[in-house]
Structure formats: structure tokens, C-alpha cells
Amino acid sequence: MSADDAYKIALVSNRGPVSFVQRDSGFELRRGAGGLAGALDPVAARLHDRAVWIAAAISEGDRAAVAAGEVSSLREELGYPVRMLDIDPEMYARYYDVVSNRMLWFANHCLWDELEIREFGPKEIAAWNDSYLPVNERFAEEVADLGDPSWLVLFQDYHLAMAPRFLRARNPEQTIFHFTHSSFCGPQGLGRLPDPMARDVIAGMLGADLVGFHVTPWVEGFADACRMIGADVDDEGVVTYEGRRSWIREYPIPIDAPELRRRAGDDAASRWAEKFLGHSDGPLIVRADRMEPSKNIIRGFEAFGRLLDRRRDLRDARFIACLYPSRQSMPEYQRYAQGIEAAVEAVNERHPGSILLFTNDDFDRTLGALRVYDVLLVNPIMDGMNLVAKEGSALNERDGVLILSSGAGAFEELGAGSITIDDALDIDATAVAIEEALAMNLDERRKRAESLREIVESRTPAMWIEAQLTDLQRVRDGVAPTTPYRS
Question: What whole-number distance in Å separates Cα of residue 370 and Cα of residue 286?
């Protein structure tokens, strides 16, 4: 923390830094993965009892650990206390699956037309009123229970969009931050939610003093949504609503490149890298994604198939897809997973063995593939950041070419060094991008790869969170954030 060590921070997220698995011999502790846990955990550990992480008890193991009093042991294990909220499983499912991951996620990514969702009915509205709002209020109550308005409170993601407003009502002097880790396409997405949900989401987030996103397009999407509900947004990124001011800023999340390379150099990842290199004498195209509609996976396969249809000389190319399931309880995701399988089958029927599809989560396999690609395809319709683009740029050992759609948050940083897909829905344009990447000469590949590596290695997760904390302290003290409104 940059300035005043007297500050205390409350980290508040749906998923915590650890989870519990119940065994016959007791509880097994599993560390959280991903950018959020990796960035926030060291900060909390450094502050010890001047930090607390508040999260939901997500699994049966988590809830059993809460009941058994095991959560209190995390103070010694992690170096800071953790609070887990034991929420009724049915209420949690409605808050998480129905509202957070079906309504708000699709709104933030403007996926209504892509998924042919026309309207919501009483079930979804009831889930908002009877589950999402009460769960958000429960999180706010837990923060308020700390009993000290000097805590800096950092709410994470769209799961907790209403929590800042609930906390503000309880503790008007609290200093509050809300960060959205997804994209935020603005009124076009939110406007399809039932009334008054869109207004409530924006008003809820504006309960925070500082509202953060990964990149400028998502900041602008939020600013447009603020105007939609009648808030004023000035040229400095200050939103005035109901007599209060909130600042909007962007904080692009980086990767921990040295740690990632250490893991990618392990034996398991190395074996996968060697295996992939042995599949063909031709070039390797790689993608690594959750099986998520916003990732636009199916169109990527279709584009590859169309390219092979017209370029017989490229038929020794291999497309390695390292995918893993996501939100399997939701019908939209079930259909999308089936569509992925069908798209791969269609291409492989015409060009046998051209796509190698993996659909279970194996991080070592993904790291191995990222080390050896000639082309990395990252073509989301819309994506908050897409760390795979950064991970591939840091790990690749063959001066591989990055293809990046303009809807990826990473495009703001990496677009100049990539081959751009302007319209991720255009399958033919995607095929042309793959063709261009495969034809690129070695000198240009090397030049671009070096540029991308330099960019992704220039910032660390510690720098990301420190920028937020510095800005939050300044806002608390009545001073404008150091981070500019627009990059």
C-alpha cells in the first residue's frame, strides 16, 4: 500500500481466496486461482489483521467448514482473516445462476441476440427480488459489521453490483470501491433487463466512491449507462447522481509473467508441448478458453474449416483447442457446448484430424500449447480482458502470431502487435486473419512477438492493485485519482 499503513481494507467477492473440500480425515484447503486471487492475496497477507476477505461459502465443503468453525483457522494459514457467508443453497443458486450469470453476465456482454433471449419472466424477476438483492444486502451487512468506517472496502464484480448502495445506506462515510471484471457494453445490454433492474444496477454501483473497469470501452459503456438513468458525467470521469459523486477509472489487469513461466517450465507442461509439436509437421493454431458463448469459439472453428476448404496447401495445419466447461447447469451453456462439439465434428469430417479438441480443464496442457503455437486465436465477441492473450504472449517460444478481435479487453494494450478481427461475427474475416497469420514472415513474427512480450511484462498484479488503493485513498481525502479518466 503506497501511502498510509493505518488504512485497513475489506476485500469482498463472491468467491474467496480459498475453498474447502471435506474428506474423511478432515478438510482439504484449495487456493483460489486466477488474476483476482493472485493480485489481492499478497496485499491482504501484508496487512495481516488490517485486512479481511469476505466471500460466500460456495460449495458443500465450504458450508461444512463454516459449520465446523474451520474458517477461523485461515487467519494462521493465509496471514489474514476470512469471513465466509453461509447462504441458503437455493437462494445462492438463484442469485448466482439466474441473476448474476444469466441476466447480468449476458447484459454486460450484449449477448441477447447471440443467444436469442427475448425477455425475462416472473422467475427471473423473483430471483432478483428474493435472492440477488438479499444476498447483496447480506454482504453489505457483513462489511458494516466490521464497525469501523475507516476501512477501505473493495467490492468485486457484477455479482455484487448492489452491495455498494446497501453499504452506503448503512455507513454513509465508508470509502467504497467497486470493480467489474467482465466487459460492460452499457445501455445496449442493460436496456434488455426488466424494469427497474437496469437503473438499480447502475445506482447500486454508484454507491461506490470509485468504480473501476479493465479498459476504456467498458468505462465508456458505464458512463453511457449512467447518463441513461439521468446521472451527470463530466470530462474528468466524475459521475454525479442523487447528490453524490463517484469517479470512474480503468485498471487493466496484468499477469504474473515470471510465475507463469515457472509453472509452464514444469515437466507436465513440457511433455504437452513436445506432444503437440509431434502432431504435425505443419503450423499449430491454438486457442484456450472456457466454453462460454462470449468467447465465440464456434465461429473460430468454422473460419478454420473454411480456410482449409479453399487452401489445400494448408491442410497439414493443426488446430489445438484447450477448452473447459463453464456453468454447466445453464441451458444456454449446455447448448453452446453441444454446438462446439458439432462444429469440430463438421470440420474434421471434411479435413480429418485437423482439430484436436480437449474439453476438460488441464492447466499444464494449456501452458504446453501456449508455449508452442504458431498462431493464437483470441476472437471473443466481447471480453472483459482475456488474459489468455497476455499469457500466450509471455510464454510462447516460437514467435507465434496473436490474432485478436477488437472486442477483447486486451485489444487496447495488444491490438497494435496483433492481427485484428474488426468484426468477431464475420467468419470469413476470421479465416482471412488466420491465413494472414500463417503467411507472416519470420522477421515480422519476431518483431511483433517481442513487442507483445515487452507490453505484458511491463506491469505486475501488485502494480494493478496498488493503483486502485492509491486512487481510493485519494478519493477518500477529497483529491482526484492519480489514474487518468481515459488512457
Answer: 7
pLDDT category at 4 given cuts 50, 70, 90 is very low
Q: Output the pLDDT for position 35.
A: 60
Q: Output the pLDDT for position 5.
A: 56
Cβ atoms of 212 and 157 within 8 Å: the answer is: no
The CA distance from 478 to 36, in Å, is: 27
Question: What is d(CA 393, CA 454) in angstroms, rounded to the nearest whole number?
Answer: 9
Say how many residues make up the chain.
487
CA atoms of 87 and 218, how far apart (whole Å) = 31
Please give the pLDDT value at position 227.
Answer: 97
Predicted local confidence at residue 3, as pLDDT: 43
Give the pLDDT confidence of 359-391 residue by residue, as tens digits: 998 999 999 999 999 999 999 999 999 999 999
> Do 482 and 466 touch, CB atoms closer than 8 A?
no
Q: Order of strands, edge to edge, in the sheet holding 375-378?
A: 355-358, 318-324, 284-290, 375-378, 401-405, 419-421
Q: Give the mean pLDDT of 159-167.
A: 98
